Amino acid sequence: MAFASGLLKARRSTAIHHTRGAFARAATKSLCIAAACAAAFGASSAVNAAELGKVGLGLPLLTSPFWQSYNNYLGAYAKQDGIDILAPVNSNNDPAQQITDMNNMINLGAKGIVVGPIDSAAISRALGNAAQKDVKVVAVDVAPTQGNVAMVVRADNRAYGEQACKYIGEHVKSGKVVQIMGDLASVNGRDRSEAFRACLKNYPNLSLLEIPAAWKGDVAASALDSLLTANPDVKGIYMQAGGVYLSPTLQTLRRKQLLVPAGDPKHIVIVSNDGIPQEFEAIRKGEIDATVSQPADLYAKYGLYYIKAALEGKTFKPGKTDHDSTIIQLQSGILEDQLPAPLVTKKNVDDKNLWGNTVK
């Protein structure tokens, strides 16, 4: 998941902001799965919005530029696809509140819910209630460990950790590397952490230091400050979520006079995750070296596509899709559409196809 610092203590519901055509275009392709193709992707359906019913939107938090952008994309794609949505609900990174929020959406008449789970295990309670009420659910960004969902829309988070590791391994020949981890109660935090750790074993001249920061920027900054005091010779840093860790990390390095631009022998190689505009600007300045662009636009686009398909009674099978992704079956039996997430460096940071370059 992509998260932000300074989590809000008060829960708030937020209305979707409709964009003026900058984010979306009509999706008219067909989704081909294994040897067979599903019904035409995004094609006009005999079932209109009124017959489908209302769709609830559950946001894990809204203090991150990533989730703010995702929220805006939801509005654009819902309008484009004629989906009748309830006002999005922000659970403020509180798993218990998210369960309450989902139950409230059902009570408000939602027939389908698109939600970004905060805790992979805790969400099962809300999924159980939804199943009893015959409410379809699509999970975005995080896969539940159990429960009934029509689809998980997510990128390969193990690939995030591997890409970050390989970049650092190729640019740091020896020394200490810090991994600022996410919440290990989330499958995203576990996948990124385990993959980075496993990959780093291929670089025997690199030693690993870890900070369990639970997607909290203040926790990351405090721990990094102490760590750098004891280890001023750190050569690389992997931040698992730029939306939450970028600013605190750069501020900490600047305060310790360790924020040296790329190209300088004293530069600390930094790789992030998210693909937010702030990371792109940091890459252009030479403050960080790379980020993995987690597709906020595609999360919204396909999250809504799959909930609409579920409400229309459509099902899918594992296999390649026509949008450069693969549907896999998880150990829980849940299907997951693994969307592409490219590595962004100074070479391609200005690529107009990157969602981070389409928002202000």
TrEMBL record:
Source organism: Paraburkholderia acidiphila
Which keywords does this chain's UniProt record carry?
Answer: Signal
Superkingdom field? Bacteria
The record, for PANTHER family, names: D-ALLOSE-BINDING PERIPLASMIC PROTEIN-RELATED
Q: What SUPFAM superfamilies does the database record attribute to this sequence? A: Periplasmic binding protein-like I
The reply on keyword Nucleotide-binding is no
Q: Where is the signal peptide?
A: 1-49
A Gene Ontology molecular-function term?
carbohydrate binding
Task: Tell me which family the UniProt entry assigns to this protein.
Answer: Belongs to the bacterial solute-binding protein 2 family.
A Pfam family for this UniProt protein? Answer: Peripla_BP_4
Q: Does the keyword Signal apply?
A: yes
Could you name the Gene Ontology cellular component terms for this entry? cell envelope
Segments forming domain Periplasmic binding protein: 56-314
Location comes to: Cell envelope
Q: What is this protein called?
A: Substrate-binding domain-containing protein
Record Gene3D superfamilies = 3.40.50.2300
